[in-house]
């Protein structure tokens, strides 16, 4: 669907869902996605897009102004990697017992084949996934009390790779977090978790959602900006 604001034009991808309210999402890639209820009339969707035009193009301008994305790591000794908001210098050593460990400011990969980037990447990916599951559970337990006091059931936590999002809250009460979020500091992880928990009450980013989020995490907008700048 085309979106217009003044002289500007862009396209939105329409997805029909079983949700009860319409939601517009400007993804980190710059894609605009509209999640609309199955029975929502097309004219009503176009009207909503027209009313949200200023916000949509403001978000697109903010995304286009971001610094260039960091190149994909080559998995060689000496390059830096993020974990929980800290930079670690990578060291790859040969070992018959492969594993990954943190030693001071170094991230050590002990691998059977030090000259095999795919082998080293699998080891590091497994390490990040294990760390993410532990840390995300700890952070969820830490930030959820204000939500449970308002009647939210503790969601099932799912950690997996996500192409374009840091997290989501599903209609079945699951909170899904992107494993790559483990590179961020705990305070930024908390922001993503609370963002999704707020969707347990309000599916879209309307006034009620903002009011709830402002109450529970007054500085969430600055955390959001830091996350977008930090993990790129």
From TrEMBL:
Pfam families for the chain: YgjP-like
InterPro entries given in the database record: UTP_pyrophosphatase-like (IPR053136), YgjP-like_metallopeptidase (IPR002725)
Protein name as it appears in the record: YgjP-like metallopeptidase domain-containing protein
Superkingdom as given in the UniProt entry: Bacteria
Start and end residues of each YgjP-like metallopeptidase domain: 22-229
């Amino acid at each position: 669907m085309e979106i217009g604001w003044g002289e500007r034009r862009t396209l939105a991808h329409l997805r029909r869902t079983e949700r009860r309210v319409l939601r517009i999402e400007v993804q980190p890639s710059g894609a605009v996605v509209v999640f609309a209820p199955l029975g929502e009339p097309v004219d009503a969707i176009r009207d909503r897009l027209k009313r949200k035009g200023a916000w949509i193009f403001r978000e697109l301008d903010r995304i286009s102004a971001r610094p260039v994305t960091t190149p994909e790591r080559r998995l060689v000794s000496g390059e830096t990697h993020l974990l929980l908001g800290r930079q670690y210098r990578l060291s790859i050593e040969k070992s018959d017992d492969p594993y990954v460990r943190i030693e001071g400011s170094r991230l050590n990969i002990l691998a059977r084949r030090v000259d095999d980037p795919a082998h080293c990447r699998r080891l590091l990916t497994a390490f990040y996934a294990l760390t993410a599951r532990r840390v995300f559970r700890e952070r969820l337990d830490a930030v959820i009390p204000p939500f449970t006091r308002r009647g939210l059931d503790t969601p099932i936590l799912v950690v997996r790779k996500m192409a374009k999002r840091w997290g989501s809250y599903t209609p079945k009460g699951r909170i899904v977090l992107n494993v790559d979020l483990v590179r961020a500091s705990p305070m930024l992880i908390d922001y993503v978790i609370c963002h999704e928990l707020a969707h347990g009450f309000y599916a879209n980013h309307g006034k009620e959602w903002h009011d709830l989020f402002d109450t529970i995490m007054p500085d969430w907008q600055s955390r959001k900006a830091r996350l977008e700048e930090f993990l790129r």
